[in-house]
Amino acid sequence: MTYDETGVRCTMLRGGTSRGLYFEERDLPGDAADRDDLLLRLMGTPDPRQIDGLGGASTLTSKVAVVSPSQAADVDVDYLFLQLGVDEATVSELQNCGNILAGVGPFAVERGLVPAGDTETSVRIRMVNSDSVAVATFPTPGGRVEYRGDVEIAGVPGTAAPVVLAFADTEGSATGALLPTGNVRDTIEGIDVTCVDNGMPVVLALAESFGLTGHESHEQLAADTALLDRVDAFRRKAAQLMGLGDVSRASVPKTVLLSAPRDGGQVCTRSFIPVQPHTSIGVLGAVSVVTGMLLPDSVGHALTADWPQGSSQVDVEHPTGHLLVDVAVDGSVTPPRVVRSGVVRTARKLFDGTAFPRA
Question: Bridge partners of 327?
Answer without folding.
Answer: 341
